[in-house]
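User: Could you check the structure of this?
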Amino acid sequence: TGGPADAPAGPWPVLGVLAVLVLAAATRFLDRNVPGWFTGSDLAKAIEFPVYAIALGLLGNAVLTAAGLRDRLAGGFRTEFFIKTGLVLLGASINLKVIVTAAGPALAQGVVLISTVFLFTWWLGGRLGLDDRLRALLSAAVSICGVSAAIAAAGAVQARREQLAYSASLVIAFALPSIFVLPALAAALGLSPEVAGAWVGGNIDTTAAVTAAGAIVGEDALAVATIVKVTQNALIGVVVVALTAWFALRVERRPGAARPGAIELWRRFPKFVLGFVAASVIATWYLAAVPAAEGKAAIGVANDLRAWFLIMAFVSIGLEFRVASLRAAGWRPVGVFAAATVVNVLVALGLAVLLFGGFTVTG
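Assistant: Sure, the predicted structure tokens are below.
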């Protein structure tokens, strides 16, 4: 795949990390300043940092390839390290106490929605002959929380970086228009803010896009959307465990071979998920033990670090992207993702009406 294992030793990996940092700083700059440059543009406000990061990574990829430096610097494109660190830090923003005390309907919605959409995507991907690893990534991405879920699934099934990049691109391409389309549809359907928020949180694949769409609907919708999305994020670990076991026991098991034991499952299990859960538990305890202002400041630092690591991960995805490895995929993954998105929209709407129809946000 042209990743770090193929890169030369010496100072080149360090220079590769430096290239990632420069592009990450440029991403951060654009993310913070573009909305101010185009104050009248809703699109400028809605574009998330993964868009800038992947775009700059692809641009850097083209420049470094043309200069003959890309493969030499590839040792610094540490996508896996950056993303796993970012996901562990993501756990710090998920307060388990909030989920347990206020998100009963959100948990029910998350379990039913994730199960339905994941299984539909997996089934359709199989019918269209997609590679099992790509099926797993697409299924996790569209049913849980977009790029983060795809990356977690990639660790569990040992997917190729090209498959991860492809899945991430589809998530971004579908999430951006949803920021505007779903609030407009919610208004047209006359949904209450709580139902609209549950619909947005259950359907849009990325947390940042959920926040943007929820804010367009209103404060009450944003509160519900956030709880629903956080609940789905917390279920990443359950899906990862299931995928790890399925691929070890069924997909990659040779006929007549012994059934993999607990040690093999533990070896394949992405350990960063434990860090993700631990960060959530620690953050929940910490926020309960310190004054609100102090806790908010500490979590803010963790969220800022998370953003930096995720930006570096997305930049690295762009830098590692190879078009030649994806040409054979054709239209089928796009068709699977689009069909699954439609199912997600409809099922999420039904669940939102059923579970949040009488729900009221209390201050």
